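note to self — DONT lose this again. spent like an hour looking for the file last time. sequence + predicted structure for the chain T wanted, 184 res
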Amino acid sequence: MALEHAILVSLLEQPGSGYELARRFDRSIGRFWTATHQQIYRVLRRMEADGWIAAEEVAQDGRPDKKVYSAAGPGRAALSDWLREPVEPETVRHELAVKIRAAAFDDPAALISEVERHRDGHAALLARYLHGEQRDFPDLTALDTTQELQHVVLRGGIEYERMTLAWLDDVLATLHRLTADRRP
């Protein structure tokens, strides 16, 4: 997936300025596609030049005018074409998993603090997702199509973090058991 597709999705959900798009990436789209503010602005300029998006100058009191972007016909067509392309399963590269296997050749206790750090990060992310779910989807019985699809992606993130936490708990229990078994 190119950043262009993630931006088009965001603009179809709601037109916005580059700053607003960057905030959306930080808050929601960033759950599954990350981009820096610089990358977003660079791609917006290219997409505007290619006719994929349109920009409207909006005057602001006491501040410089801003550009509000929206998806244009060619952008919608590109997104439609991309939506119909097959997606290959993602290749997983998991450095922590390799380190866990490597612990068999060293001291398993050496990994405990690193696994705990990962666990803390995933627990914080899960808490953020759950907070976002309560904030953005307070009434699950009244969702429109866009909200239903946004919510199903968020649920996938929530379940992924729950699964990861369960696995990290299992890793920690194993490391602690192995460490206890090695004591004289």
